[in-house]
Amino acid sequence: MPPTEDPRLALLGAIIRDPTTAALAERDWPAVVASADLAPADRDALLRLSPQRVLVYRQLVHNRIANATREFLPRCAARLGPAKFREAITEFVAQRASQSPYLRDVPGEFVRWALTRWAGDRDIPEYLGDLARHELLDFDVRNDPRGGENATGEPLALDRPLRFDGSTRLVRYAFAVHRLSRDPKDHGAPSREDARLLVFRDASCKVRYLELTVFAGNLVEALLVDALPVGDALRRVCVAGEHGLDDQQLADAAHLLADLADRGVVLGAGA
Amino acid sequence: MTLPVPVGVGLGLRSAFLRDVDRGEAEGRVAFFEVAPENYMHRGGRLPKRLESIAGRHPLLTHGLMMSLGSTDALDRAYLRTLKEFLHRYAAPWHSDHLCFSGLDGTLLHDLLPVPFDRGTARRIADRISFVEDALGVPMAIENISWYVELGNPHYAETDFINEILALSGCRLLLDVNNVFVNASNHGFDPFAWLAEIPLDRVVALHVAGHEPWDDTLIIDTHGADVRREVEEMLHWVIARCGPRPVVLERDAHIPPLPELLAEVDRIAAVYANALCRWNETHAPH
Lengths: 271, 286
Description:
The complex is a heterodimer.
Chain A: H1 7-17, H2 19-27, H3 29-35, H4 40-47, H5 51-72, H6 74-80, H7 82-95, H8 106-119, H9 128-143, E1 162-164, E2 169-175, E3 192-201, E4 207-212, H10 214-225, H11 230-241, H12 247-262, E5 266-269
Antiparallel strand pairs in A: 1-5, 2-3, 3-4
Helix pairs in contact in A: 1-2, 1-5, 2-3, 5-6, 5-8, 6-9, 8-9, 10-11
Chain B: E1 8-12, H1 18-22, E2 33-35, H2 46-55, E3 60-63, H3 77-89, E4 95-98, E5 101-104, E6 107-113, H4 119-136, E7 140-143, H5 158-169, E8 172-176, H6 177-187, H7 191-196, E9 203-208, E10 212-215, E11 218-220, H8 229-242, E12 246-249, H9 258-283
Parallel strand pairs in B: 1-2, 1-12, 2-3, 3-4, 4-7, 7-8, 8-9, 9-12
Antiparallel strand pairs in B: 5-6, 10-11
Helix pairs in contact in B: 4-5, 8-9
């Protein structure tokens, strides 16, 4: 993206996004104005402004981004604490900011930006990334434009993949964040465990969560994420488990797929 | 298909009371609802279903948030395509957005940022409005915003700037009288003199809202309080001169329960009815 063509817009944008420029504006407004490539008349007009008035826009933008993010990630924000959360928002706006015209996308943009940063920060609980993803998940599934498609009318067959409801997600966490209290004031830590959840929006538009066993998780991953035919998916799960497919596992798989069909998650055989 | 344009006092539809409206709790109480398409575009689940249901029972007008008409960035064609689908689905008679910029260098700042009042900016915005009208296939209206600083050396007053854009683009005006009040209060001018400089025949709709103090010298257009009497007087002044129009009550912060909002709609509607009587007196057929 080429730099802004209008230096007046660029100056306001820099004050809003860049903490160094904002701090300098408070300390030495003429220096900030002088650093912009302004026409003399614009420079003179801007020098007459109160920098505090200009900085109002920085606060308005940051407040809006912070409020939207906190609304979607209340438990994450509470665990970070007000200062650390605000610091993260400041850095997010400076380094990345939003690239979506939809305000509701901002929390997801924030989390994608934050995940790698948090991973290397010893002051951040190790599970916070999983919790952030989990808090976002509910909103994502609830509002996914996909979902509610009709059943295919095709019976399940070993040589064909399955069609899933478009809102369906398979998520995997290293911590059982899905069992944490929903109360933002409760800062309890989750247990470390390999958790797999199947998440979907049901016919009444409610978001449903199914905790899967390792076997079911691997099978759903092969069917949903990799879109393998049912037979291939079963074989892959057996290879991964380093054992043959026994009668119990076949029965478990049949039961799982029937249950998912009953819930409207599996819509039938796909193409 | 375009439906008849509603007139009278409507309400900005918000998720905080969407369910109540869908249950019929505003039935017969508002002339129409105004919706922000961005809240429903690219979205599935319950919210768009509720909007669909509400649209079957109430006229809708549309008012966007993120077109960023004043930006130097290219217009977002994907956004415009989705917006066009939305506007045609709900038979919007026009679509409005703000006279501001919200995006810069590929990022979106999700606020209404001021543009310089100069000729180059007016031409750029007018060109972008024409482009958008072609892309959307519906007429555009621009809304005057609350601005807290003047960004650079103005070539002319805000009213002249707006008039220039209206003349160059042929678009319409969504007149936000609260924004006029906020600017008049913050920058020290007479809001009625401001209104007198605007071509009222180009006004297709009005916004009213409340505002809140930032500090001792600045008020902010938060849509977080009841509409003040001074703003009602400005609404009266405009309607008495331009006649029936859709008037939208906006509330985005400290949103009270729907019955309280509807009571405020009633209060605004009384002001509107009174102003319309005045307009009828001067426009009655002889």
